[in-house]
Amino acid sequence: MTERVWVKDPIAVLADGAERGVVVEDGRIVELVGKGAAPAHPVHSVFDASRHVVTPGLVNTHHHMFQTLTRAHPKAINKELFPWLQALFPIWAGNVDPENFRLATRLALTELLISGCTTASDHQYLFPPGLEFAMDIQAEEAAKLGVRMTLTRGSLNLTADEGGNADQGAVQDTDVILADCERVIGRYHDASEGSMLQVAFAPCAPFNVTKRLMVETAELAAKCNCHMHTHLGETRDENVYCMEHFGYRPVDYLEEVGWLNDRVWLAHGIHFNDDEMVRLGKAGVGVSHCPTSNMVLASGQCRTKELEAAGSPVGLGVDGSASNDNSNLMEAVRHALMIGRLTYNAETVTHFDAFRWATEGSARCLGRSDIGAIAVGKQADLSFFTLDELRFSGAGDPLAALVLCGAYKADRVMVKGAWRIEDGVPPGVDLAELRYEHGRVAKKFLESV
Description:
Blueprint: E1 4-8, E2 12-13, E3 21-25, E4 28-32, E5 45-48, E6 52-56, E7 58-60, E8 63-64, H1 81-95, H2 98-114, E9 117-124, H3 134-145, E10 148-155, H4 174-188, E11 197-203, H5 211-224, E12 227-232, H6 236-246, H7 250-256, E13 264-268, H8 274-283, E14 286-289, H9 291-296, H10 304-310, E15 314-316, E16 319-320, H11 329-343, H12 351-365, E17 382-386, H13 398-404, E18 412-415, E19 418-421, H14 431-446
Parallel strand pairs: 1-5, 2-6, 7-9, 8-16, 9-10, 10-11, 11-12, 12-13, 13-14, 14-15
Antiparallel strand pairs: 1-3, 3-4, 6-17, 17-18, 18-19
C-alpha cells in the first residue's frame, strides 16, 4: 500500500473546496479536503501546512539556461533585442562548453525550484562544436534535482552572412539538427501521464533558421506527435524582417511553414494584430508570456487577454537569464500582473489571472493535462510559501499577498509527491558551492569583453 499523506490546514490554497488541504498518494492528488471536513479514508501521515500558502507547482514555458553565464554582461546591457543578440552571439558561440553548460543548467533549475517552479522548459538552441549532447546534460541535471522538464531541442542554421543573425560558430547543418531531434525524442520523450521528461522541437526564430528547417521540423513533430516551439512576434524589428525576407508578417510565415496548429507554443507573441490573434486562437497555438524580459529589452506588451479570448493557451516564461537576468518564475507572476494592469486596467487583470498563466495556461502550452492545478487526479506538484517575512506583515488576502507583496522563494516544493525543496533549499545541494563553481566558469565570458 502506498503512503497517503494529508497536507493539512494551509493558510490558503489555490483551489476550490480544499480549505483543509489535500491528500497525496503515489505522486498524485487523490482528495481535496473541504471546510470543516476530514479525509474520507485513513491517512498514514500528516504534513502540518498551517504556516503555508499552497499553490500548484509553477510551470516555466520559456527559458535559455545557458544565458545565466552572461547576466548583466557589459556588452549587452541597455540594448533592445537585435543589438543585444549581436553583442552576445559571438560570446556565447565561442565560450559555451559542456562544463559551463552543465553548471548553467544546474543553477537555472535550482533557481526555478526555489521560486516554486516544478516543471521547466528550456529553449536550448545553441549547439557550438563540443556541445552536441546538450539535451543529455539537461536530462541528467533535471533528474538529479527531481524537476519535470520538457527538453526543447532548439536549433540555429542561418548566419548573418546568409541573411540571418546567428553566429557562424553556433549553427548546425539541417540534417544534423533533424537527426539529433530524432535521437533525443527516441531516448527521452515519455508521453505517459505523470512523466518527468518530454521532448519538443524548437527552431530558434524566423531570423536565424531556414524555411526548410521549419517545414521539416513540423513534419517530424507530426510523425512523433510532439510539440514545437519558436520565438515569434517578439519585436517590431522581427515584423520588418519577415516583410523584407518573406513578403508577409510572422503569422503568415507560421502558416506557410506548417506551424499553425495546437502542437505549437510561441515565445513572447507581442506584436500580433487583431486578425492574427483570432487565427492563432482558432488554431490553438499557445503563447509564452515573458513579462520580465519584455520589459528589460523594451520589446512591448503581450495582449494576454485577447489571446486567451481567441482560444490561445497563455503561459508564463522567465526567458533568457541574460534578458531577465534571473530564473525566478514567482517574480514573473508579479511582473505579469503589473504589466497586465498597465496594458489593461486594475480590474481586468487579477492575481488569479497571473497564477493561471503560470500554472494551467503554462501546462496547456506544453501539452500537459496532468499538471498545473490542484485537483483530484492531477500530479502532486505543489509549492508552499510562508508569510513570515516583513514584506507580508499586515497582508489581508494570503494568495493576493504572494503576488502583491512580492514573494520570490518557496519554503517547500513537492514534485510528484516528493519533497524537492525543504526549508527553502533543495536537499543535498550545496548552494554556496554551486554559486562558486558557476561564478568561476562565468568569468570566461567576461574575458570576452
